[in-house]
Amino acid sequence: MILFPAIDVRNGRCVRLTQGNFDRETVFAERPAEQALEWEKAGSSFLHVVDLDAARTGTSGNEAAVAEILRQISIPVQLGGGIRGMKDIEKKLTLGVARVILGTIALKDPGLVRSAVRAYGERIVVGVDSKDGYVAVEGWGRISAVKSAEFCAMIRDLGVRTLVYTDIAKDGMMTGPNLSATKDAVALGGIDVIASGGVASLSDLRALEEIGVRGVVIGRALYDGAIDLKEAIDIFEHAGPAFNGRIVKGA
């Protein structure tokens, strides 16, 4: 099981939001690249980066911060937030991102997802952001009428090999993950699930491992010191097979 330290970038800084609320922001680093280096030094094998400004509005001023992260570290990065078309996908991959995470566009344009998978294979990931069982879009600012479980099945059938499943109600709350909903996503089969939201302890990580997730995004628990990244990596990565052996390197 791979552990993905999360770096959320807003206005060029490394921040964490509570339940995706832009009015409940905590700044953890002025330069996200410095935080990325810390996670790499702790032994991280993959980094999860989200451009919050782009996720919310479709445009971003965080390109320089993301580019600096990619220059400073050698481990692969998966990047999400505001990726709206093939040109955006190509731009991110050319920049050196290992995998791109499609969100809003995956719901609006399934054909784009199919084309992207055909072109880039496992470098295409879809983020399923769920609130009360329905898919949230536009930086979690709007709840769609599409059920999260149905969306998970749809993206699997489009050929996507990996999804990031986030329970918004749990995100940043340190109350534990939504095991039931995450387990349902895993039970679909044919797609690797990365769990996100609510992880607060090693016990939470163990519970997610037991239901069969292939990876876990960890945010506030690392920043608040509730989980020691090096210790967690030693337990959950070094003790077993790594993500089915499929860590995708950047271009």
> What low-confidence regions span 5 or more consecutive residues with pLDDT below 50?
241-251
What fold name goes in the CATH topology slot? TIM Barrel
- The N- to C-terminal Cα distance equals 23 Å
Major pleated sheet = 8 strands, parallel, barrel
- By CATH, the superfamily comes out as Aldolase class I
Major β-sheet strand ordering: 1-4-5-6-7-10-11-12
Which sequence of SSEs, written as H and E, runs from N to C? EEEHEHHEHEHHEEEHEHEHEHH
Report the helical percentage.
25-40%
Residues in β-strands, percent: 25-35%
Write the layout of secondary structure elements.
Blueprint: E1 2-10, E2 13-18, E3 21-29, H1 32-41, E4 47-51, H2 52-57, H3 63-72, E5 77-80, H4 86-95, E6 99-102, H5 104-108, H6 110-120, E7 124-131, E8 134-137, E9 142-147, H7 148-157, E10 162-167, H8 179-187, E11 192-196, H9 202-210, E12 215-218, H10 220-223, H11 229-236
Parallel strand pairs: 1-4, 1-12, 4-5, 5-6, 6-7, 7-10, 10-11, 11-12
Antiparallel strand pairs: 1-2, 2-3, 7-8, 8-9
Helix pairs in contact: 1-3
What is the structure about, briefly put?
The chain is an alpha/beta fold and 251 residues long.
Brief descriptors of the model:
single chain; 251 residues; alpha/beta; TIM Barrel; eight-stranded parallel beta barrel; 28% strand; disordered C terminus
Give a structural overview.
The protein has 251 residues and is of the alpha/beta class. The protein has a single domain (2-240), classed as Aldolase class I (TIM Barrel, Alpha-Beta Barrel). Helices cover 37% and strands 28% of the residues. It has helices spanning 32-41, 52-57, 63-72, 86-95, 104-108, 110-120, 148-157, 179-187, 202-210, 220-223, 229-236; strands at 2-10, 13-18, 21-29, 47-51, 77-80, 99-102, 124-131, 134-137, 142-147, 162-167, 192-196, 215-218. The chain has an 8-stranded parallel β-barrel, surrounded by 8 helices. α1 (32-41) runs parallel beside α3. The longest helix is centred in the middle third of the chain and has 11 residues, at 110-120. The chain is globular, with a radius of gyration of 16 Å.
